[in-house]
Structure to design on (471 residues):
């Protein structure tokens, strides 16, 4: 055929892009197109920083396309209408796009498919979501057997990765909107958008040795260290494919010099598989976007204290590790994975607030906010999701703080009012004598709040609330 549209959604890359590759193999000309969808941009789950990261990613993608003789065409409106108009203007006969699996994405694609030939390709996951199933054809609902089945399938190698095209033929004369947004807004996050930045970060992580992937097993839980890959926003928007990440993990495993290093690479691979597991859960059980995976937990008697939620949201709970993490989230648009679990457990188990309140708040702020991963993480912590022993897992924020931020570097970074508090009191500042409070310029109740709830009491209350629903 003569012309095809490459409809870009969450695959802002040229290398290892199955939708782009299929379009180029099927047509002489390809129109790279992105539709500004008002349903998504005005969603209550939208985040300013995430949208700014997306917009800057589109600008970078446009520059990469222009270097190959092409360019990005931006349109706005309902996708089925915007793409129909673009197809009419360009003479495109078909639309190629990478499959997406959220309930809205599937509904959107059905609408587009009613008015245009829409062909969906793989690329969102390493293995098609219908290929990692039990022997009876049912989807896995527990991670460990899912990961074993995932690993039993052929893994991609470097030869399977699709190189970036050197040139792309795109019809001239097509009008395009300017990418909206203010570029400086993206500077408020620690992530520079774009495929090249993603590749550079990946290479540094894979070759960084014990300070990177080979030390990942032991460093990944320490928010006071730079021990994670920092690739989640790039995977979220497809500036890096999961297949590229898995191939890199395999490379790191081969480069490892000892068992500890190999364990680091394997641990990171397991985290990538967790991402696919949650995509599988959302694909097969779309009700999790609105309800608990386990229906009985929809009847939990939540306290849903709005003042308590406000204290959590503002980082004013009186528990330093919780407050530091929440302030990191609001200021930077990102939060360390260990502290994501800590603050989620505190909201759900200590404050007995519906996990959906926290899930939405995260999506309103995270640069890497992904419907499947975010929902899966919140339901895992809440004990309402795909887990065998729900309500017994209640994080103690004091013990978590002492274990994973022992010197208090993370806390002091995000809570300047606690900078001068001695480390022995930093994790439990309410134990600080009055004289020490004066010396540290931190008076409890004035400069930093007292705990809004007693953890021991909150734990027993949560256990009782969950027991009432589990029989």
């Amino acid at each position: 055929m003569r012309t095809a549209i490459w409809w870009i959604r969450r695959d802002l890359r040229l290398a290892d892009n199955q939708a782009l590759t299929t379009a180029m193999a099927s047509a002489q000309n390809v129109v790279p197109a992105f539709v500004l969808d008002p349903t998504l941009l005005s969603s209550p789950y939208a985040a300013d920083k995430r949208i700014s990261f997306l917009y800057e990613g589109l600008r970078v993608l446009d520059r990469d396309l222009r270097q190959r003789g092409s360019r990005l065409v931006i349109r706005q409106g309902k996708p089925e209408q915007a793409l129909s108009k673009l197809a009419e203007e360009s003479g495109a006969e078909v639309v190629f796009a990478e499959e997406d699996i959220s309930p809205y994405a599937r509904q959107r694609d059905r609408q587009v498919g009613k008015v245009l030939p829409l062909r969906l390709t793989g690329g969102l996951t390493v293995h098609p979501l219908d290929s990692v199933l039990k022997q009876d054809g049912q989807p896995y609902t527990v991670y460990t057997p899912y990961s074993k089945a995932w690993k039993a399938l052929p893994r991609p190698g470097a030869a399977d990765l699709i190189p970036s095209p050197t040139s792309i033929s795109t019809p001239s004369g097509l009008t395009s909107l300017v990418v909206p947004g203010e570029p400086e807004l993206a500077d408020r996050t620690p992530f520079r958008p774009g495929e090249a930045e993603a590749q550079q970060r990946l290479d540094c992580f894979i070759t960084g040795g014990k300070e990177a992937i080979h030390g990942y097993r032991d460093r990944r839980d320490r928010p006071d260290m730079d021990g994670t890959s920092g690739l989640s926003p790039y995977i979220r928007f497809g500036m890096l494919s999961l297949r590229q990440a898995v191939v890199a993990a395999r490379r790191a495993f081969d480069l490892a010099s000892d068992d500890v290093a190999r364990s680091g690479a394997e641990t990171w691979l397991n985290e990538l598989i967790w991402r696919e597991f949650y995509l599988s859960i959302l694909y097969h059980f779309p009700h999790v976007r609105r309800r608990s995976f386990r229906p009985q937990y929809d009847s939990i008697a939540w306290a849903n204290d709005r003042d308590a939620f406000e204290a959590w949201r503002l980082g004013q709970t009186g528990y330093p590790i919780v407050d530091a993490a929440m302030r990191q989230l609001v200021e930077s648009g990102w939060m360390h994975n260990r502290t994501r679990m800590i603050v989620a457990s505190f909201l759900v188990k200590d404050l007995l607030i519906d996990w959906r309140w926290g899930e939405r708040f995260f999506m309103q702020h995270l640069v890497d906010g992904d419907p499947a991963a975010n929902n899966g993480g919140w339901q895992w912590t809440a004990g309402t999701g795909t887990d065998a022993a729900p309500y017994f897992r209640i994080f103690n924020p004091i013990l978590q703080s002492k274990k994973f931020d022992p010197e208090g570097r993370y806390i002091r970074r995000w809570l300047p009012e606690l900078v001068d508090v001695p480390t022995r009191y930093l994790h439990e500042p309410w134990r600080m004598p009055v004289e020490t409070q004066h010396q540290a310029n931190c008076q409890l109740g004035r400069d930093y709040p007292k705990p809004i709830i007693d953890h021991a009491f909150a734990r027993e209350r949560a256990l009782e609330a969950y027991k009432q629903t589990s029989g």
